[in-house]
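Quick one:
INPUT:
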C-alpha cells in the first residue's frame, strides 16, 4: 500500500463521571417472532462508557425496564429499541414479528445471560439460557471457545488471559443460538502501581500528562503501571523501553480530538515493552474522533497501535478499535507477540504487517469490520520496498470477519530478486464474510523474492468473491501453498467483479505480464456449496497468454458446484492438477 511505512487510563475512586465518546449499543436477539400476548427477553450491551444502562421502548406491545417484551393482542411487526442512558443518541433495535398462530412448534429466540461478563484465570461463571417459542424441548447445548462449560452452564475460564465466547444452541433447532462474551484476565501483578498515584485522571478531560508521568516513572523503576477501571482521554502516547502496563477490566481509553494526519495513538518505538489487558472486550483503546478526521481529510495513517523500530514487544488481551488508519501497524521490529486482542471497525486495515520483521507471532486475535479506505482488509501483509523482509512471521488461530476488502492479504509486489527470502506461516485461520476474497496473494513481475508462504488448515466462509485467489502471482516468486483449505459458500456477491470467474479458488490474471504465473499449490481442498453461485472448484487462467507453471489442485471433499468436472486449467476441464 503506498505510503504504509512511517518515518493510554483511571478515575479517582470518588468519581462518578461518565465519558460518552464512542458509545455503542448492541441488542440481542436482533430479530425474533412471538405469538400475540407472548413474551420475549432482550438484552443490550453498552460499550465506550462506564454506564451500561439502557432505556427500552417498543413500537407495539410493551417492554419492562429489564428488557422483557410482551407482544400486543393483535398481529403486526414491532420494533424494540434500546437507547444508552449515557448518550441517548446511541441505540440499537430489534424486530419482532407478532402472529396469531404458529404452524408448528418452533424456537423463536434464544438468549444467554449474562450477555457479557469477566472472569479470573481458571475462574467460574454460571450461565443460563432462555429458549423462547412453542417447542417443548427447552434444553441447550453449551460450548466455549477457549475455556470449558458443563451441560448445566457452569463455565470455567482457561489458564491464560483473553476473550472467550460461550454459545448455547437449541437442542430442538440447531439454527437458533445465543452467545456471551467473557473477558478472562489475571489480577494485577504485586509490583503494580496505580495510574492514580501520579495524578487525577478519568474525569472527562485530557489525561495525557498523567499517563506520560506514570509511564516514565514505572518504566525506570521496573514496575508495572496499572490502569484502573474508568474512561480516559489521551493524545499520542509513547512507551519508554522497559514499560509494563496492565489494564484492568472496564477500562476505555479514547483518543482526543486533534490527531494530525499521521498521529498514532499508542507508539512503541522502543524495547522490552509489555501491554496486557483483562480481556479484549473490557480493556479497550478507541479512536472514533480520529476515524472521523480521516474520513474528512482522507488520511489513512491515524493508527491505534504502532510497533516500529522496536524489539521484545508483547501485547495481549486488549482492543484497538475505530482508528483512522490501522488497528495495529507493525514495521521494522523483532520478537513481537500479539495475542488475544480485538481490532474492530478500523479505517484502513485491522492489521498492517509491513517489513523488516523477524520473529513475529500473532495468535488468537480478531480482525473485524474494517471499512473506510483501501485495502480494507482484516490483515494485509505488504512490504513497502525491496529492502523490506518478512522472516519467521507467524499467524495462528486468528479470525478475520466482515471486512470490506479481503480477509487475509499477502501483497509481495514491491519485493524482487534482491530481496531476502520470505517466510510467512498461517495456521488454523478463519476468514468469514469478507467483502472480496477470503485469502488473497500477489507478487511482482518480472522478478521476485524467493521463500515460502504457507497456509495450513485454514477456513473461509461466505466470502464476497473467491475463497482464495492468487492474482498476478508470478511463478518465479515464493511458493504459495494452501494445505487442507476449507471453503464454504464463496461468491456471496456473485462472480468475481474483476475477472468474472465463479470458482472456489483461483490463480488468475489479466494482460500485461512478462513471466509465467504459478508456483501456487492448493492441496486437499474441501469445498461445500449450497448457494448455487459456484461453477467450478478451481480456475487457473493466464490472461497474458504466457502460461501457467508449477501449480496444484488436489481435491478433498467437494460438493455443490454446478459443473460435474472440478475445474479449469487455461480453459481445459480437469479434475485435478499436479500433486
Amino acid at each position: 500500500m503506498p505510503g504504509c511505512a512511517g518515518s493510554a487510563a483511571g478515575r479517582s475512586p470518588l468519581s462518578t463521571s461518565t465519558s460518552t465518546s464512542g458509545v455503542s449499543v448492541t441488542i440481542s436477539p436482533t430479530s425474533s417472532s412471538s405469538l400475540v400476548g407472548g413474551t420475549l427477553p432482550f438484552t443490550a450491551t453498552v460499550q465506550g462508557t462506564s454506564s451500561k444502562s439502557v432505556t427500552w421502548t417498543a413500537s407495539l406491545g410493551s417492554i419492562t425496564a429489564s428488557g422483557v417484551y410482551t407482544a400486543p393482542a393483535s398481529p403486526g411487526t414491532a420494533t424494540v429499541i434500546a437507547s444508552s442512558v449515557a448518550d441517548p443518541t446511541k441505540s440499537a433495535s430489534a424486530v419482532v414479528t407478532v402472529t396469531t398462530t404458529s404452524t408448528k412448534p418452533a424456537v423463536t429466540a434464544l438468549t444467554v445471560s449474562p450477555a457479557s461478563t469477566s472472569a479470573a484465570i481458571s475462574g467460574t461463571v454460571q450461565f443460563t439460557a432462555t429458549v423462547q417459542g412453542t417447542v417443548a424441548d427447552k434444553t441447550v447445548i453449551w460450548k466455549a471457545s477457549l475455556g470449558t462449560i458443563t451441560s448445566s452452564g457452569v463455565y470455567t475460564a482457561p489458564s491464560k488471559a483473553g476473550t472467550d465466547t460461550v454459545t448455547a444452541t437449541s437442542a430442538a433447532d440447531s439454527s437458533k443460538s445465543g452467545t456471551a462474551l467473557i473477558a478472562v484476565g489475571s489480577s494485577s501483578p504485586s509490583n503494580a502501581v496505580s495510574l492514580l498515584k501520579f495524578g487525577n485522571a478519568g474525569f472527562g478531560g485530557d489525561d495525557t500528562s498523567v499517563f506520560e508521568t506514570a509511564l516514565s516513572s514505572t518504566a525506570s523503576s521496573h514496575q508495572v503501571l496499572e490502569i484502573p477501571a474508568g474512561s480516559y482521554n489521551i493524545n499520542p502516547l509513547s512507551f519508554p523501553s522497559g514499560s509494563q502496563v496492565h489494564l484492568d477490566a472496564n477500562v476505555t481509553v479514547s483518543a482526543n480530538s486533534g490527531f494530525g494526519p499521521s498521529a498514532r495513538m499508542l507508539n512503541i518505538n522502543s524495547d522490552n515493552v509489555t501491554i496486557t489487558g483483562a480481556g479484549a472486550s473490557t480493556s479497550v483503546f478507541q479512536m472514533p474522533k480520529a476515524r472521523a478526521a480521516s474520513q474528512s481529510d482522507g488520511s489513512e495513517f491515524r493508527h491505534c497501535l504502532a510497533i516500529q523500530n522496536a524489539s521484545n514487544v508483547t501485547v495481549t488481551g486488549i482492543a484497538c478499535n475505530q482508528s483512522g488508519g490501522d488497528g495495529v501497524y507493525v514495521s521494522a521490529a523483532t520478537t513481537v507477540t500479539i495475542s488475544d486482542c480485538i481490532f474492530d471497525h478500523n479505517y484502513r486495515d485491522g492489521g498492517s504487517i509491513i517489513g523488516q520483521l523477524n520473529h513475529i507471532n500473532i495468535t488468537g486475535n480478531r480482525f473485524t469490520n474494517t471499512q473506510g479506505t483501501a485495502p480494507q482488509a482484516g490483515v494485509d501483509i505488504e512490504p513497502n520496498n525491496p529492502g523490506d523482509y518478512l522472516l519467521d512471521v507467524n499467524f495462528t488461530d486468528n479470525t478475520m470477519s466482515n471486512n470490506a476488502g479481503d480477509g487475509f492479504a499477502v501483497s509481495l509486489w514491491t519485493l524482487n530478486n534482491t530481496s531476502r527470502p520470505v517466510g510467512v506461516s498461517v495456521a488454523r485461520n478463519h476468514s468469514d464474510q469478507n467483502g472480496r476474497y477470503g485469502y488473497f496473494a500477489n507478487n511482482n513481475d518480472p522478478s521476485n523474492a524467493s521463500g515460502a508462504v504457507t497456509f495450513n488448515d485454514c477456513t473461509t466462509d461466505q466470502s464476497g468473491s473467491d475463497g482464495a485467489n492468487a492474482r498476478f502471482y508470478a511463478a518465479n516468486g515464493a511458493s504459495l501453498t494452501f494445505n487442507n483449505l476449507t471453503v464454504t459458500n464463496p461468491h456471496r456477491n456473485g462472480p468475481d467483479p474483476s475477472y468474472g470467474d465463479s470458482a472456489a479458488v483461483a490463480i488468475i490474471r489479466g494482460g500485461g505480464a512478462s513471466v509465467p504465473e504459478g508456483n501456487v499449490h492448493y492441496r486437499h481442498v474441501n469445498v461445500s456449496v449450497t448457494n448455487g453461485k459456484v461453477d467450478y472448484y478451481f480456475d487457473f487462467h493466464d490472461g497474458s497468454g504466457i502460461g501457467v507453471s508449477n501449480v496444484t489442485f488436489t481435491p478433498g471433499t467437494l460438493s455443490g458446484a454446478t459443473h460435474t468436472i472440478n475445474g479449469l486449467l487455461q480453459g481445459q476441464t480437469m479434475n485435478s492438477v499436479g500433486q
